Request: fold
Amino acid sequence: MLALARKLTGDPSLVVIDEPGAGLAPRVIAQVTESLAMLRERGIVRLLIEERMTIARALDARVAVMGRGVVRFDGTMRALSDAQREWLAVGQPDVSR
Reply:
């Protein structure tokens, strides 16, 4: 939360947030998520880099998913839910090579 507050002191138009939930308790993650939602309301663009989808789902934002250095998906969270069944299944071979 302190790092996020520091980023906002300069009135940025874009904030890059790398794994904001790393090492935090679920209650604190919820507070961070609420803070990120408020940034959207203030018109600040958020670039969220996160392995877990919990925060991204809560923010219901546009999503880009990378795998092996390639953008595998770019769209809405709802479209991702539909698409992930096709290419995020565990144990499927990588057919991109």
Q: What stands out?
A: The chain has two domains: 1-60, 62-91. The beta strands are 14-18, 45-49, 62-67, 70-76. The mean pLDDT is 81.
